[in-house]
Hints:
The structure is a homodimer. By secondary structure, chain A is an alpha/beta fold. Chain A has helices at about 20-30, 35-40, 60-70, 90-95, 115-120, 140-155, 170-180, 210; strands at about 5-10, 30-35, 50-55, 75-80, 105-110, 120-125, 130-135, 155-160, 190-195, 200-205, 220-225, 230, 235.
Amino acid sequence: MAREIYVVGIGPGAEDMMTVQALEVLDKCDVIIGYSVYLELLGDRYKDKEKLQTPMKQEIRRCEMCFEEAQKDKRVAMICSGDAGVYGMAAPMYEINKRYPDCELVIVPGVTAALSGAAVLGAPINHDFVVISLSDLLTPWELIEKRLAAAAMGDFAIVLYNPSSIKRADYLMKACDILLSNGCKEDRACGYVVNIGREGTTSKCLTLGELRNTKVNMFTTVFIGNSKSYIFNNKLVTRRGYEI
Amino acid sequence: MAREIYVVGIGPGAEDMMTVQALEVLDKCDVIIGYSVYLELLGDRYKDKEKLQTPMKQEIRRCEMCFEEAQKDKRVAMICSGDAGVYGMAAPMYEINKRYPDCELVIVPGVTAALSGAAVLGAPINHDFVVISLSDLLTPWELIEKRLAAAAMGDFAIVLYNPSSIKRADYLMKACDILLSNGCKEDRACGYVVNIGREGTTSKCLTLGELRNTKVNMFTTVFIGNSKSYIFNNKLVTRRGYEI
């Protein structure tokens, strides 16, 4: 029988935003592997479990550790923040899986920031939407630009992950400029959420013109409405289409 | 103090794919309102709760019922399958909320089919992606066509909701043709999942050319990879970008 390795999305951070399945998988496993920040998010419930971590940018080593631990007959869970398969470790885990054909991956989905952030802001992605990461660590910036332009041309609601970092302080501004030069107007309804599902959650609704001149940090998820979205009572709403 | 009404995403169906928060909200509420099929999905846990339903296409009446029940000092939860804010009732609930300013909505996110279906197929949306509904009940078909073309031009991974119904038997074929005429090749890696998180879940990986000639039912979610996606061991994987 194949050794099962679980790749688990733990949601934004708060334990009550995990699925029952995710909690049960972690309850039953012998070792939890993840980025140190995510292991800390798990809190007391798993304080007696064996945990293994690697720092940021050592994601591939982290994946390899999962398979190495599974070879020792341990039940292994790799945790990802949000969902396991949205900029998560599911895809690289399948790559490493090719070297370990006796292992089988089980992906446990979780609430990604597009959903948890949307719930804080109101209903910003209640119609067709795109999710784009502004991080050019693994993606050429030209491709990110092309996708932003396509998102504007398709009049999608847009969710931006990784809108900023110390090295990429002006990327959100550049992204807004691409949207503005591809048909989005300055008064387009937008919003952002900081620290979703963690202590100190804050959110703000604003126009695309204002968003362009806003500095956000790396714990921020940005939402840009489609041309029919609106802000009412400090909530960002993208119509589903009903005439009301 | 404002009367709180909860709009709850219950995930694909299986109780263990609900978040702890969603379960707790439903535990505490006095009345659960929803589409009859979703009320049935809840199963035994809430069998003694008061439940109110409306048939399909009476979504707005269902929203109004939530506010009417809240006026009777009941704690009300409106349930949506998947996530509350992805083609869910969050947006129409905010519309009706304008008539009931003493009520405040609390959106409880859930695992939408893009995530739960992705987990079954492998890692099909592990990079930038779009979600498009093929239902033209509330959206002009021309806008759907425009968005499909934009998704192809941006080389996004694509998730299609509502790919078919009795009246729209050929919409998936039409959608594939739009993708094919906007740069997607016939050998593009694709997949679909039927009955996600419910009894009889099935999935299949196939090419875009094969998908074009496949009949799917209304309980199907379709995934189209980006130009770098691949099928391996019957899993659909969209690279995150690491060189491995």
